[in-house]
Design goal:
By secondary structure, the protein is α+β, with helices and mostly antiparallel strands. The chain contains 3 helices and 4 strands; from the N terminus they run ββαβαβα. The protein has a two-stranded antiparallel ribbon. One of its GO terms (cellular component) is nucleus.
Length: about 150
Amino acid sequence: QMTGRKGRVVRRPDGSVVFESRAEQGLSIDHVNLKEKERFMQGEKLVAIISEASSSGISLQADRRVKNQKRRVHMTLELPWSADRAIQQFGRTKGSNQVSAPEYVFLISELAGERRFASIVAKRLESLGALTHGDRRATESRDLSKYNFENK
């Protein structure tokens, strides 16, 4: 977890649920986020949860220089309110020295307003070409046309 939150809810083996601090001995929350990033990149943790509050400057791509080179599946629970912010977020899992291109998944409800908004973001991302340059062999993973309702 790489967020601005100071704590988290944890289920214990006995089934009880408790709120515990994210802080680790001798580390500030900012340093905890960097430590969590390191654990993910080294393969100690296989899931990274990031929020916009803490993702600035964080790179999580399947870089050739890190131990965890598994393909990234970037799931977006809530789209940002602009295509530029979306590009920045998607850039967390895409990089020039990557072993494989990430797969992008938008989790979108059937609500017409949310689907329409996703279509606007997808159309803007396609027009910028932000996710279609680089690795020519991985274009299908970056195809956002299924979210763009203004195409065939």
